[in-house]
Amino acid sequence: MNIVVCVKQVPDTATERKLKSSDSTLDREAVDGLMNELDEYAVEEALRIKEAHGGEVTILTMGPSTAADTIRKALSMGADKAVHLSDDALHGSDSLQTSFAIQQVLGRTGFDLVILGSESTDARTGVLAAMLAERLGVSQVTLANKVEIDGSTIRIQRQTDYGFDRVEASLPAVVSVVEKINEPRYPSFKGIMAAKKKPVDAPSLADLGIDAAQVGLAGSATTVVDFAEAPPRAKGQIVTDEGDGGSKIADFLASKKFV
Amino acid sequence: MSFIESGERLALRAAVAELGAKYGSSYYLEKARNGGKTDELWAEAGRLGYLGVNVPEEYGGGGGGIGDLAAVCEELAAAGCPLLLMVVSPAICATIIARSGTEAQKKHWLPGFADGSVKMAFAITEPDAGSNSHRITTTARRDGDGWLLSGQKTFISGVDEADAVLFVSRTEDQKGTLRPSLFIVPTDAEGFTWTPIEMEIVSPEKQFICHLDDVRLPYDALVGDEDGGLLQLFAGLNPERIMATAMGAGIGRLALAKAVAYAKERQVFKVPIGAHQGVAHPLAEAKVELELARLMGQKAAWLYDSGDDLGAAEAANMAKYAAAEAAIHAVDQAIQTHGGNGLTSEYGVGMLAGVVRLMRIAPVSREMILNFVAQHSLGLPKSY
Ligand SMILES: Cc1cc2nc3c(=O)[nH]c(=O)nc-3n(C[C@H](O)[C@H](O)[C@H](O)COP(=O)(O)OP(=O)(O)OC[C@H]3O[C@@H](n4cnc5c(N)ncnc54)[C@H](O)[C@@H]3O)c2cc1C
Ligand SMILES: Cc1cc2nc3c(=O)[nH]c(=O)nc-3n(C[C@H](O)[C@H](O)[C@H](O)COP(=O)(O)OP(=O)(O)OC[C@H]3O[C@@H](n4cnc5c(N)ncnc54)[C@H](O)[C@@H]3O)c2cc1C
Fold it and tell me: Quick one: B238 and B361 in the same domain?
């Protein structure tokens, strides 16, 4: 089975993230990049499917040259090869264009199954799997907390607020995963050493037949018009327990619509 | 020439740091305070090949060097889990067996070191021969086609959790200057008993006095030559010092990270205490000292891995000295930064004092390193 995992490099959520005032895009230089957390689960699921059914796992990343670290990590977990799409013209691409560019890469790799995280921690649109399936004209099975492959059929449990739905589709398909699906492995030492020798294909936009004007900030359908810093955290409220601490806390939570 | 570690080394550090974070200080302290062992972490690190990075590939290891193993040790320590037995089992024992063992010994032991399923303790220190290993009296007598081993060792770490112990001894016809012979003794061998020593260090690994009373060993319990000289022993002792450096640097980083986090949050006058130079500068000094020690440790590992045992000996001694001093300063300043909380159990800083203080004594004391540097690096007369 030809499995492609879409992996995004995102800024470390533990550090302070900033938008650039020049073009309202994320300042990716200022902070350490690492693999989008959910994409670790996507890679793990791909490896498990490969281990059970055979095949090959390809990592697909669109991102700046520093994203090579994230690709290396996915390869050290056990993926076989990678495609790194990197071109300054892609900077500032919105979801529509990102899905377009990824579609073009998938035209090059071919696929039976494309696995994504259900959401990134930086842009958090959560729409890429759907857009990609639409563009590719294949089934989308999203928010999977369990995946089963049976011949050319994929069955998932789709996580919902109240439990889960069982969804079935035929391959080829696009699936997005949530963190309940598995526990991602740590790269082994042998995996780390082997990663260096694994092939990373770096096609140019021209190789993919993409015109630079179709992507990037200029070609985006959506624009970030304005942004403001999040207001500093308001001072916490201390509840002293005078026998009624419990109900005071409940009142507070209710006032914030948490309960 | 590069002073920066390779991409693979950095990726290894990142992976080990992630594993370490999953366990963390709380796991380690819980085990240490309740008499537990860090078995789960050891097993998982072993399965991932982290404990066997330095074991040759043909025996199932990672085929890397002591620099890789030191990176693993440092990152686990920095995550709050200093694994003392890493200094002994994969660093000393696996190295000695890989370098001086017979093919049969390598086949028997190395795959277990590679995945961490084997633990081997190392015993050189004796009650009357601490810093002076030339005085060791543990003796092997020939007996038919095997050996009888007798003697006493002290301060031996991890005997209770080890499969075997590598004993440094001498053969009966050897007198005077030590030409060590090394024997692997399974912990269930008849005539081998051990008793724990009460220690004031909070650690899951315990120290023991070992008694060998005519322990019968097969001929192939001997590793290397009967009186192979000090070189085969030093093959294992340079890695020991490099690992001690890594552990010191890791614990120093842990203490410093805790101190910095606390200094940013804690406010008693108008600003966080970290804004007071009286707090900030000693922490900055600790950072400088730790980085210098790490760099020297990496140099020692690089020399060792490129086959320069002699060059590695000087660097490893200097690195071990520097790391112990840096770690002691870092922990001391971390305690000071935490004020009263520095000595509470909750913050887990105070307990590090005993752990790093040990590093000025073992595996080789500060004074013995200064003796080495004075004599070998400076050419001063031998003082003892
Ligand atoms: C502050 C900010 C505001 C933005 N506003 C908009 C906006 O209003 N409209 C808009 O269309 N875009 C916007 N973007 C751009 C957005 O970053 C891109 O559209 C992004 O590349 C895809 O969206 P996502 O990360 O939200 O994907 P999601 O759908 O959240 O991510 C799901 C999965 O898609 C895969 N994936 C995502 N990106 C990549 C990639 N580059 N390479 C490989 N796999 C990937 C991963 O598997 C990921 O887990 C904004 C970005 C930022 C930082
Ligand atoms: C927690 C712990 C774990 C240990 N684990 C092991 C283990 O697994 N295996 C093992 O074999 N050993 C182990 N040891 C023993 C350790 O290696 C010794 O304690 C160390 O080598 C010092 O020896 P000693 O205790 O006999 O001190 P001594 O040799 O008695 O020295 C006492 C003091 O005198 C100083 N001194 C001695 N000679 C000189 C000199 N010529 N010039 C200047 N100063 C001198 C020393 O520096 C020291 O400060 C461990 C020790 C500890 C505390």
Answer: yes
- Cα of A152 from ligand 1 centre, angstroms: 29
Domain ranges of chain A: 2-229
Q: A189 and B52: CB-CB below 8 Å?
A: yes
Backbone angles phi, psi at A5, to 5 degrees: -110, 125
> Which is nearest to B332 in space by CA: B361, B352, B358, B359?
B352
**Exposure class string for A75-98: b at 16+ Cβ within 10 A, else e:** bbbbbbebbbbbbebbebbbbbbb
Q: Are B113 and B139 found together in one domain?
A: no
| Least confidently predicted of B32-36, B89-93, B132-136, B198-202 | B132-136
Angstroms from B316 CA to nearest CA on chain A? 24
Ligand 2 atom at minimum distance from B207 CA: 3
Give the domain range for residue B258.
Answer: 230-377
Which of A72, A189, A195 faces B53 most closely, judged by CB atoms?
Answer: A189
| pLDDT band at residue B228 under the 50/70/90 scheme | low
Task: Give how far A193 is from chain B: nearest CA, Å.
Answer: 6
- Place B229 in a pLDDT band, splitting at 50, 70 and 90: low
**Is residue B2 in some structural domain?**
no
Give the distance (Å) from ligand 2 centre to CA of residue B363. Answer: 7
Task: Walk along chain A (259 residues) and give the pLDDT tens digit of each residue.
Answer: 999 999 999 998 888 888 888 888 888 777 788 999 999 999 999 999 999 999 999 999 999 999 999 999 999 999 999 999 999 999 999 999 999 999 999 999 999 999 999 999 998 999 999 999 999 999 999 999 999 999 999 999 999 999 999 999 999 999 999 999 999 999 999 999 999 999 999 999 999 999 998 899 888 888 888 888 888 887 778 888 888 999 999 998 998 888 8
Nearest to A193 among B8, B18, B48 (CB): B8
Q: What is the pTM of this model?
A: 0.91
Domain total of chain B: 3
Chain A CA closest to residue B19: A186
Count of H-run helices and E-run strands, chain B: 11, 8
Chain B: nearest CA to A259, how far in angstroms?
31
Residues of A within 8 A of B64 (CB-CB) are: 189, 193
Atom 45 in ligand 2: residue holding the nearest Cα: B367
Answer whether residue B383 is part of any domain: no
Q: Which among B2, B104, B15, B100 has a CA at the least distance from the CA of B53?
A: B15
Which residue has a Cα nearest atom 23 of ligand 2? B130
Interface touch B15/A193, C-beta < 8 Å: no
Name the residue in chain A with its Cα closest to that of B65.
A189
Rounded distance between C-alpha atoms, residue A113 and residue A150, angstroms:
13
Query: What fold characterizes domain A2-229?
Result: Rossmann fold (3.40.50)
